[in-house]
Amino acid sequence: MLCLVAYLVLLLQFLVHVTAYGTNYENYEPSRFFYACQLQLGLEATFCSPENVSCPCLNPNYLALMAGCIETNGGAHDDALTKASIKSGIKDCTYYGVTLNSSWYDIAINDYHNNAKSASEIANFNMSDIIDVPFIVNHTASYPYQESYRRFYANYQGSLYYGAAILGFWLIVLLVGGFINWSKILFPQTTKKMTSPLVNYWRKHVTVPATFRKKKAQDQPFLKVFGFLIPSRFESLILALFYGITILCNALNMEGIDNDPLFNSRYAAENRYVADRSGITATMFMPLIFLFAGRNNFLQWLTRWNYSTFLAFHRHTSRVMVILVIIHSFAFTYAVYDEYAEDAAESYFYWGIVGTIAGGLILVQAILFLRRNWYELFLFLHVILAALWVLGTWLHLVDMGYIQMVVPAIAIWVADRFARILRLFFFGFPKADVYLLADETLKVVIPKPSYWKSIPGGHAFIHFLKPTYFWQSHPFTFTDGIEDKNAITLYCKVKGGITHSLYKMLVAAPGRQCKVRVAVEGPYGEATPAKYADTAVFVAGGNGIPGIYSEIIDIAKHTTHSEKQSLKLYWVIREWRSLFWFYEELVNLNKTNIQTTIYVTRPDVITCIEDFSQRFTATTTTTKTTTINSGSLKLESNTDASFEENENEKQETLGKDMAVKEVVHDDLSSDEKSDVTLIINSIKNELSHITFLEGRPDFEKIVPQEIHESNGSVTFVTCGHPAMVDELRYCCAHNVDNKERKRVDFFEQIQVWA
Fold first, then answer.
1. CATH number belonging to the domain at 530-609+660-748, selected among 3.80.10.10, 3.40.50.80, 3.40.50.300, 3.40.50.920
2. Which string of b and e fits 144-176 if b means at least 16 CB within 10 Å?
3. For 407-429, how does the pLDDT look when each residue is reduced to its tens digit (9 = 90+)?
4. For residue 122, what pLDDT band results from cuts at 50, 70 and 90?
5. Which residues contact 118 (CB under 8 A, 6 or more apart)?
6. Closest CA to 430 of 468, 481, 379, 380
7. How far is CA 377 from the centre of its chain?
8. Taking a C-beta distance cutoff of 8 angstroms, is the pair 439, 575 a contact?
């Protein structure tokens, strides 16, 4: 909360100091009479030589004609438009080095009324010859000029309104989302009763399920390198409305007039309208894009949506923004095609090109395939290209009056980075104890300051302060220490990158443990409303257990025996060794009222099971074959791989130095089998408060069973392999409208960010 306050204070200070920078926005629509008359007069009569650009401001006949044109076309009935035209005349002449008196219009209109002549009244009138009397403009021909400028300037002002409409849409979405989610916290008993057919239909078909059948946490493969993530159905509905509103706001009121005198054709006029509209609306929701992507996004607190949801919104809104800017660039290039070389030499033009190219490159380098396989490179390039985008946008708009739209985006970005640094120093830079457990998991025990409060189910970003990768940070869920209450424990699956480097260091270290200085940024996230449910069912898969354990153990601590709330924990693991790295926490469950069930989907795999012999001193093991065998990796086919960590789906390719021979029960001798049986029995005896089942959980049976056994509402919370999370989501959605009319909620802790 302290970091959030600091973030908001810095944001406001930055906005106050920087907003005044650059040219202020000016609404030209009230001045359209002046500029329309200026265009028309230049085509109907000549008062000055073309070389003398300041002459019109000094020529009383021209000023009289201008005043007459303004009055005739509406100024006589609209004082505001007349005043705007007077100011435009003064501003226009100032540009040419002439100071025009504020009373120029009154003098000029009197001159027009007393001395103006039509073409027929001027002897030997020729449009190209300079005349020395005020000229009566052809009023019947004024409409195209006036209408052309009206539509041109109205599009500028209208673009602001349409951009505001897009932002207004997001404001409504965020407020409604916040109201719904906070009502679950503030009015839990009322929420439990919301099981009417209409509410259940909406939740079953919109808010709970994946967009298409099951896949939400899982990525959708497409042509190998063009895989993508599909948001939930509710998120997809929001995004579909966003796309629709954006298209609508960039299509309305874009009609030009035939033979447009300002742009010479209707097509050219409409092209310019498209260029201006797309550029303005894209710039207006630029701050929102940076806010969605920030770790310290206060909207997460407002809506109680997780970071993954906001990243989904960030990806889609940023794509739309870049596409709009590309449309703006192409349309504007066409509009200035005849003067391209001259315009391209202007700083606003080439910095616009820089920003557009940076945005296009971001679209390419941010595809899921690149994010998954080269995340650190992606992140580095993403930040550099985003900085170029901001720089290009700033220098493109600084003299156009739209810089105030860019300032909030920069302020949000700077404030987020500042808050992140503040969090790092707030935690300190302690030395952590790092252990390699069961050849698959790093256990990181980090001393924490007494004032650092954990968030049940939350996560933190950790930096391992080594010269080769200190700048990298990775998110992990954590638990409070079992033995040391002034420490937090993180569990990191050994994959590639940093965890691979730490693995190699720990393999060579005595006892497979060492101390590493770390920096911790966090905590982030919020606990789910599961604590308010009559039955809270937590389901974890593989390394998804820490966050799940953290939240359910916190609920158990604050639940008295007199309360009727039922707490249940399911953990799905692939093999017995997965228990080893989380064993102390499992033992600690004996002190709670949590009903725990562990599914072992490959109980025949006993790789590294001899590690348990160090705990069970009465057991003598001879299973030497289960130790690391460098260079040989035997991977059995895994029929249940969709529910656990699949070795072939790791984000990074591991080297041979991490190869672990998979040992199955049938490969052992009779003595070794006996030792393994003793170890497994010892595990079950010490963890007698836990039910062990072999095989894969059937959520199609578990979910309705939990609903039936509950005394009331049921909340399912899950984190694990994406396929497992999607399966549970699917089953929960199908049981929202259960016959017993019990409230069923589903929450996922899994954060699919890359």
1. 3.40.50.80
2. bbbbbbebbbebbebbbebbebbeebbeebbee
3. 999 999 999 999 999 999 999 99
4. confident
5. 135, 136
6. 481
7. 19
8. no
